[in-house]
Amino acid sequence: MNAYVSIWRLRFINGMQYRAAAAAGIATQLFFGFIFIMIFAAFYRFSDSAAPMSLHEVVTYVWLQQIFLSFIMLWFRDNEIFALITGGGIAYELCRPAELYPFWYSKLLAQRVSSAVLRCFPILAVVFVLPEPYRMGIPPSFGALLLFIASLLLGLLVIVAISMLIYISVFWTMSPTGSLLMVSVAGEFLAGAVVPVPLMPEWMQRITYALPFRWTTDFPFRVYSGHIPQHEALWGILIQLLWLAALIVIGRLLMKRALRNVVVQGG
Amino acid sequence: MGLYFKYLSIHFRSQLQYRASFLLLSAGQFFIPFAVFGGLYFMFERFGGLPGWNFYEAALCFAVIHMSFSLSECFARGFDAFSSLVAGGDFDRLLVRPRSTVVQVLGSKFEFTRVGRLLQSLIVLVWALMNLPQVWTLPKMSLLLLMVVNGVLIFTGIFMLAATFCFWTIQAIEVANIFTDGGREMAQYPLNIYEKWVTRFFTFIIPFGCVSYLPLMYLLDKKEGSPLLWLTPMAGALFVLPCLLVWSFGVRHYRSTGS
Lengths: 267, 259
Known about the structure:
The structure holds two protein chains of two kinds.
Chain A: H1 2-15, H2 19-46, H3 55-67, H4 69-72, H5 79-87, H6 90-95, H7 100-127, H8 142-173, H9 179-190, H10 202-210, H11 218-225, H12 230-260
Helix pairs in contact in A: 1-7, 2-3, 2-7, 3-11, 7-8, 8-11, 8-12
Chain B: H1 2-16, H2 19-47, H3 55-75, H4 77-80, H5 82-87, H6 91-96, H7 101-107, H8 115-130, H9 138-169, H10 176-187, H11 196-205, H12 208-211, H13 213-219, H14 235-252
Helix pairs in contact in B: 1-7, 2-8, 3-8, 3-9, 9-14
């Protein structure tokens, strides 16, 4: 267990070095946040009768998305592992006295957390003092805040488990692009990254409810704004736990199979 | 110019050598904007419209911007990926050749897989046009072409500006994404829905509004539209000129990274 904690720490410190990139990212995310909110606001001006979510909740949703962008993206600064698999470096990884699945898992987790930590505080400082209608809301109660934090962390674990499946699939396809790109785009869409899930049409919502993607970010963000009431949120957290367990079990099984017939390329 | 087409054909043939990967990537590029277009579609389905714009009009706006973006990503990729040229010291080789640096950088890389993205926006364009009969006249169609061409010029100009910064920073600067990706996301909706400062910035400084929103007013017979708006897409060509100047200024101040 200690080995995995220390690889997590190493990666976290490593990720914290990219401060210039983070500063640029903050500017970009603030800009995108503004643009998205203006688009939503324009739609709400046209008609707000049909919306199952108030504009205020949408604004909070958009800012949370921008702050925790690294918790949404399935595709995340990670060419290293791809290179390990396709380039043959996997041989070294297999020599380590540590299991590969938790090893990579903690690596990926650290990348996402460090990116979020670097970016979230400056953005938070800005979005709470913006003039209306751009100001981010606060959770309706202390309980909602606690549930939000719990579900956000679980969501993070879920998304890392999903992205592990993407890496493992590279053992078979050997090419990380093309089809995988499509999976990640579809996954982000189903997580509500383009249109918040409650604003999707009925049939689309049903699809998203059946898949794990929306539990990564859509669910915690709506717990935050109180759009999902607290007793429902508790059930949601249970479902998150189930998804997490299922994804990790599948991931480990697939990885075991992949490693049994792994071919090390090159030398 | 002949040199440019030579580069083009060499890159095209070399990328076609990996046929399966080329097709897969193109297919991927075909589906990516579906998510974005799906977002637009779902929003219109939920809310019914934007102030002053219906779905097909907005889709036309979307198609024009995405076509421009995919074309410039295909042909001006050399500037987009320029930081690798500078960081590796390979730019020195370009400088000693007796040809213009702009042509050579443009020719250093092409992304033909963007054809998938182009195809998708073409489909959206045709779909939107089928439902907008008022655009079906020869002058209006040629104006549409002009809009796309000048849109390509704007994106290319931004790529060039970002590349010029690499002379000083060596690394690619991420802030440029605000103007390329951000500009695309923003300009795919009609500009009048934004706050004044955004609209002004993207009309007078970076003229996205001049290739989409303003000429669209005329194309779609909106009441503010007038044939004078024919001239606005030319702002794209105007935008590239200072970018070229900045570029040549940057080239003169280039100091090699060595290696």
